[in-house]
Structure formats: structure tokens, C-alpha cells
Amino acid sequence: MTEPPPPSGSFVGAVEEPSESPFLDDAEGMAVEPITQWDLFWTRLRRHRLAMISAGILAFIIMVVVLAPLMESAGWIDDPLVRLVDDGGRSLRNIPPRLSDGTVSVLPPGEQAVPASATALIFGSDDLGRGVFTRVIYGGRASLTVGFVTGLMVAFLGTMIGSIAGYYPGGVDQSLMRFTDLVLGLPLLPIAIVVGRILPEMDFLPDWITRGPMGIALLLGILSWGGLARIVRAEFMSLREKEFVEAARAAGASDRRIVFRHILPNAMSPIIVQTTLIVGIAIIVEAALSFLGFGVPPPTPTWGGMAAEGGRLAVRGFWWELVFSASALIVTVLSINFLGDGLRDALDPTQTIERK
Amino acid sequence: MLSYITRRLVYGLVTLLALSMIVFTLLQLSGGGPLDRLKLNPRMQPVIQQLTELWGLDQPIWRQYVTWLKNYLTVSEFSVHNMLPFVAIGAAVVATVVLGKLMKSHWKGAAILGVWAIAMYIVFVNITIKFNWGISFQGAGDVWDLVFGRVGATFRLGLSALFLALIIGVPLGIYQAVRQYSFFDQLGTTASFVFFSTPIFIIGVGLQLIFALYFERWTGVKLFYVAGMNSSNYDTLSVAGKIGDTLRHLVLPAVSIALISLAGYARFQRASMLEVLHSDYLRTAKAKGLPRSKVIVKHALRNAMIPVVTLVSLDIAFMIGGAIITETIFGWPGIGRLYITAIGTIDYPVVMAIVMLIGIMIVIMNVVADILYGVMDPRVRYD
To answer: Residue ranges of the domains in chain A?
Structure first.
């Protein structure tokens, strides 16, 4: 059975959509299923074992962190703020990791003690007697919020500014690029520290920005799109001159159609790769801010804040809070970076193409 | 090239101006002023009044900003110790003209850059200059003295880290590229990924705990110090003792910064080396029958080093910013820790001075990177 050569990678936009029926000539048994770019992408990504494992781990982490309130109501984990007590009502401070023996309870302020979840002490407890396991799970919320929001903002702002600059040469391009240079010249961490410090005092902003990780996420989004905009601009400038774009223009396609149907799909690869990179960096910066005490204020758990607290406890030999919060952080960022690496390979049309 | 550099410096100035406006406005937006701590004490009322008038804290933000900017750019103290600075600048000007006429195009930039660097060094050693950067709100004294009293510590840490990262990262990347897909290459790639994904504070805290605290607890031998730049009895030590003491303080913070940069350099060097190794002219060199070592060292390496050199010059600026976290962890008396302390109390003259210093470094290093890029790669045209 012979199969037609796959469509050439760099001209996806110009390739016809597959017809409704994928089978060309079923009667003679010579049916050939056309392979789309999407299929090729999936095949290549699936070959990248590390990226697939990372995607699985990442999906698991996101699911656990997002579903934490559900798990709490189902009695699987506890509230991240409550303290654990034993049978005699004594607070369980700095308990090393151990499996539950059924004697641990939680004591919400001013209420009766209720049995803690079975996983209460699986990662030990901190110096206030709070379960580290629960706090690690809830601590992921700040990191994932920052990663998600910053990633979306960077993808949107960078693509928009880069594509406008790349598609409309001349004055528009020049002024947008000067602006991009300006934003790229701003030092990220020092500014983020200033904002993290004064954010809780900025009363004129709505509560959802000043409390919690949203403010930091928005700031990182505003400051980190420069690199992507440069890449997208370069991509647009080269694609704009390609024959298939000229053909589309000659056929009377509108600017909007050319940009969204022909150029943008071909520029997707660097956009996705750069965005995953930024997501990893944003998570690290948020954790660093929380570590320094300029991030999400306590008692809300964050991985960076827990690492700072755990570091102080580890001096006295209580290593668990540091180890588990740091591991959660490293595993998450590492998964994102491995996934980004796999996506880069899979989205690269010059990679050797493997058939199913 | 000169017009290109001038243009870049002008853009840099605009960026710096924007940076100062952004940070200044942000600092003013904080609810409590820098005098909050004093307000707790009722007897301080007249002092607060005086300070408010002195710094113009009751005026609108833009007026305060203009005052700050005017002071920031004002030279408050200036004296020339001897004639050497004039000689150095004159010699540099002459050298620029002569070299510009005599030298081959692409090395010209490097030579002129070097001449000016030496001239600037001579100038700064032989003059006293001080800008009116204000007085710390927390009573820590003159901001210029405060900041430049600490820059040395930050440079010691940053340059040691850079040195470590370079001498390990670059050869590692080259070796990985030459032995692509070998076990060592895979190991190196994975390790760089891990270090690249690890926040610097985890590496710092981890190194501090394991090699300084736990190591001493387990073995009873004090190998590294947990914090600080020198021991308190530093002055009484012998020369060898001084070097040892310095190293035992320096190694851990320098390694924690270096590990992350190192991972980046190794990855970058590997990629750029691979690109060169697969190029046509390298195949030609091999086909001519040149020995492998000669092909790699003479033909591949020189071209593969170009991107790394620019990365490094950009990194010098970022290392000062990156030192903020490491200095905090290791109690290193540099500008990073000063920055954190100053932010905590919204000591804005100090915060502004450090932010601007980092911004200026970034602008200068960007230009230096551009020049070096053109110097090392004659194909680059400035336009």
C-alpha cells in the first residue's frame, strides 16, 4: 500500500482542509487516510516519552490542586488552616511524617474536635501543628494561578503585539518594537518585589487583586510578554513574504483571514514553546516572592512561603515541610519545562516524520 | 557602529526614565509612608513634620518625583586627586581615533571597548565623585555611601558565581555536543533541566542546610559558614587564614547562583555547538582530513562561542538582580540584602538607588553584548 507524501510542514495554512470523506476509493480497497498536521504533531509528541510522563504528572497535580475543596468536603484532606490534636487534646507540633493511626483530630477554633482525615500526618506537621500534606495541596493554588494567568496574558499580549508589529511594517512596527524594548529592559525581580511589598496596601484596587496571587500574576503577565512579541514579530515578517500568503492575498482574502487562517497557524510553534517557558519562570518568581515574604500573605499556604518556613524548621532538624513543598515546586516546574521541550520537538515540522 | 551604539544608549536612557517613574509611583502608592514607624511615638511629631518638609512628602507625586530626579542627577561632591584622569581620557580619545583608522573592522570595537574600560578604571580610582542620592529614611546614612559600600560584596559574589558557571558550564556544553546522544550527554541535559527548573532559594537553602549545618552536625568538622562574608576575627588571621576564611564563606552562595547559570550555559553552548558541528564548512574541514581535535577547537569552537559570550555579558547584569535572593539566604552584606531591608520599610531613596543601579547595569551590558557580538562575528552589521 502506498501512501501519499505528508503535507509539507511549513505550508500548513495553504493546505486544503481534508474533504468530508477521508476514504478516497473504498470500493477498490485502496483507501488512504489523509494525515493532517495535527496527527503528525500527536504522533511526534507521543514518541517523546518524558514529555508524556510530564503531561500526566502535570494533569494529576492540576487535578488534585483544583479539586482540593471537593476532597476536603469528602473528608480526604483537612482544612489547610486548622490545627491537628491528639486524643488528649494536645497540639501535634513538628510531628515527622507517619501514617494515620486514627488518634489524630482537627480542632477548628471554638468547636468540638473532629477526626482528621487519614492522610493528616502523611507529610508530618509544622510548628503550629498544621498538616503539611494539606498545606502542600492548597499551596499549589497560588503557583498554578500565577502560571495559568501569566501564561494566558503573555500568550495573548505577546501574540497580539508581535503580530501587529510583524504584519504592518513601518511606523506601527517601529513604535511597537520600541515599546517592547522598553518593557524588556525593565528588571523583573526588583519590580516584582516592590509590587509584592505594597500590593496589600493598595486599597484602591479590588480585593481579588490585592489578596492572593492574582495581583502578582497580572504583574508578571504585564512584564513578561516582550520576548514572545519579538519572536512572533520575526515569524510574521518572514511568513508575510511567503508565496502562500501572496496567493491568499491575490485570491482576495481579507487581512483578517490571512492573519488568522494562514499566518498564525504557522507561527503557533514558537508561541506555545515560549509560553510554556514563561509559565515555568512565572511560577518560580511567585514562589521566590512568597519565600521572601512579599507574596501571598500567611496563613494562606504557598509553596514558596512553606519553603521559607520549612527552611527555618529544618535548622532544628524538622526537614519535612521544606522537602515536600520544595519537591512539589520542582516537580511542577520540571514537568512544565519537559512538556515544553516535547512540544518544541513535536511542533517542529523539520523533525523526521514517523507514520502510525 | 558609533551611531548604532548612541541610539541604543538613548533608548536605554528612556527605559531608565520609565523604570524610575514606575518604581517611584509604585512606592508612593503604598498606604503607609516611610515615616510610619516614627508615628507610633508621639514625641516624634515635630521630627516627622521636619522630615516631611525636608523630603517634600506632602507634595503631589509628580513634584516629589521631579525633586528626586533632580537630586539623583546632582553631583554633591567632586574632586580630582591628580592629573591621571585627564591623561587617561585624553589617551583614550587618541587611541579611539588611531585604532579606528588603523585596525581591521571587526576587532576595532573590542580594542576601543578595552581602552575605554581601562581609562574609566583609572578615572574612578583617582577621583572622588558623589551624587546626591538622598539620605536613608531609616537613619542608615547617605544613600550613595550605603550602596557603594556594598557593591563590592555583590560583585565578589556575582563574579565568583559567573566564573564558576563559565569554567564548568561551557566545557560541559561543548563535550555534550561533541558526544551527542551519549550517556553523558543525556545525563547532562537532564541535569541542566532539573537545575533550570529549581528555584534558586531551594538550592541556596538546601546547600546551606546540608553542607554548612548538617555536615557540621554529622562530622563535627566546620567546613563552610552558614552566613556572612568574613568571620569576626578576620583581621587577626594570617594571609592563608584570610583566604581560607573568605572561601569558606563564599563557596556556598556562589555555587547556588552558579548552578542555575551553569545549567543555562551548558544548554546554550550545546545547542550552538551542535549547530556549528552540522554546518557545511565544518564538513569541509573534516573532508580535508584535518584531525578531529583541530576541527573542534579551531573551526567549531570559535563560532560556537559567539552566542555564549553575549549571554554572559547580559548575565552579569542579571546576576546583581539575582543575588537578591541568595544574599538574603546567606546573610551576604551586598546590595541585594540591602534592597530587601529597604523595601520592607519603604526606604525609597535606597530602593530607587538600587533599582536604578540594576537598570543602568542592564543598559550598559546590553550595549557591551551588542559590541562583542559584532566583534566576534564579522557577519553582523549594525544598522
So the answer is: 84-128, 132-347
- Residue B285's Cα: distance from chain center in Å? 39
Provide the CATH number for the domain formed by A132-347 in this structure: 1.10.3720.10
pLDDT < 70 stretches in chain A: 1-31, 102, 108-111, 349-356
Write the ipTM.
Answer: 0.86
| Chain A hits for B337, Cβ within 8 Å | none
| Whether B193 contacts chain A with CB within 8 A | yes
The set of cell numbers assigned to A353 is: 516524520
Reference A122, options A68, A62, A91, A78; nearest CA is A78
- Per cent of chain B over pLDDT 90 is 16
Most B CBs within 10 Å, among A48, A186, A290, A309, to test the B interface: A186
Phi-psi category of residue B130: left, alpha or beta, with phi > 0 → left and psi -120 to 50 → alpha: beta
Whether residue B26 lies within 8 A of chain A, CB to CB, comes out as: yes
Q: Is A294 an 8 Å CB contact of chain B?
A: yes
Question: What sections of B198-287 are H helices per DSSP?
Answer: 200-207, 215-219, 239-277, 280-287
pTM score over 0.95: no
Give per-residue pLDDT as tens, B54-71.
Answer: 777 777 888 888 888 988
**Residues of chain A contacting residue B4, judged by C-beta atoms under 8 Å apart:** none
pLDDT tens per residue, range A135-189: 999 999 999 999 999 999 999 999 999 999 999 888 899 999 999 989 988 888 9
Residue A7 pLDDT? 47
Residue B353 touches chain A, beta carbons under 8 Å: no
**In the block, which residue shows the cell 555583590?**
B154
**What are the structural domains of chain B?**
143-376 (1.10.3720.10)
Distance from CA of A26 to the nearest CA of B (A): 44
Average confidence (pLDDT) over B2-9: 84
A80: helix, strand or coil? coil
Nearest CB to B321; choose among A187, A201, A322: A187
- Interface probe for A, chosen from B205, B210, B215, B365 (most Cβ of A below 10 Å), is B205
CB contact under 8 A, B209 and A314: yes
The pLDDT of B317-326, averaged and rounded, is: 78
Q: Which residues of chain A are within 8 Å of residue B14 when distances are taken between CB atoms?
A: 182
Closest to B270 (Cα-Cα) out of B295, B312, B305:
B305
What percentage of chain A exceeds 90 in pLDDT?
A: 39
Burial of A111 (0-12, 13-18, 19+ CB in 10 A): exposed
Q: Give the residue from chain B lying closest to A191, CA to CA.
A: B23
